[in-house]
Design brief:
Blueprint (H helix, E strand, L loop, with lengths): L1 H14 L7 H10 L3 H4 L3 H12 L5 H30 L3 H5 L1 H22 L9 H7 L4 H29 L1
C-alpha cells in the first residue's frame, strides 16, 4: 500500500510539475494529522521536497513555509479532536481497560507538556498521536498553539537541513 502511495505521488509530481509545490502542505498535513499520520510515512515529504529542489521546480525557501503550515494545521486538527473527544474518551471500554497507562500518560503530559509537544513533533511513529493526547488531557489551547508553533518551526528548520544535505548529495 505504501509503495502504491509513493508511486502515485511521484506520478503526480511528473504529470503536474507546475502545481507540485502544493503537495508539500498536503503531505505535511497528512503525516501530522491524527489517523492519517499512522498511514503516511514521513519519508514521503523528504523525498517529494528533495525531488522538487533537485529538479529546480521549487526552492527550499518556498517549501519550508508550506511544510510548516501543513504540519501546524495537522497538529491542530489532532489537538482539537482530542479536546472534543476528551470527556467521552474516558468513558470508553478502551479507556477502562487501559486506565493505568492513560493515567500515567496524562501525568507525564501535565508534568512535561511542553517537552512532550516539542519532542513528539520529531518522532514519526507518534507524531500524529501526541496532539490528540495533549488535547484529551485538557492542555491550555493558547499554550499548546505557541509551543506547537515553535516545534513546527524547529521541525521545518530540520527539514531544511535535510533538504540541503540531500540536494547537495545529488
Amino acid at each position: 500500500m505504501i509503495g502504491a502511495l509513493n508511486d502515485l505521488i511521484f506520478q503526480l509530481l511528473d504529470d503536474y510539475r507546475e502545481q507540485a509545490l502544493f503537495l508539500i502542505p498536503i503531505i505535511a498535513f497528512s503525516e501530522a494529522c491524527i489517523g492519517l499520520g499512522l498511514l503516511f510515512p514521513s519519508l514521503v515529504l523528504v523525498a517529494v521536497a528533495s525531488v522538487l529542489v533537485s529538479t529546480e521546480t521549487a526552492t527550499i525557501i518556498q517549501i519550508l513555509p508550506l511544510a510548516f503550515l501543513g504540519a501546524l494545521l495537522g497538529d491542530h486538527v489532532g489537538f482539537y479532536s482530542g479536546r472534543w473527544l476528551g470527556p467521552r474518551f474516558h468513558e470508553t471500554r478502551f479507556a477502562d481497560r487501559h486506565q493505568r497507562r492513560i493515567h500515567r500518560a496524562q501525568n507525564m503530559i501535565r508534568r512535561h507538556g511542553a517537552w512532550t509537544i516539542l519532542i513528539g513533533r520529531f518522532i514519526p511513529a507518534i507524531r500524529s498521536l501526541i496532539p490528540a493526547m495533549i488535547g484529551i488531557s485538557g492542555f491550555n489551547r493558547t499554550r499548546y498553539s505557541v509551543i506547537d508553533g515553535i516545534a513546527c518551526v524547529l521541525w521545518s528548520a530540520g527539514l531544511g537541513v535535510i533538504l540541503v544535505g540531500t540536494t547537495s548529495f545529488f
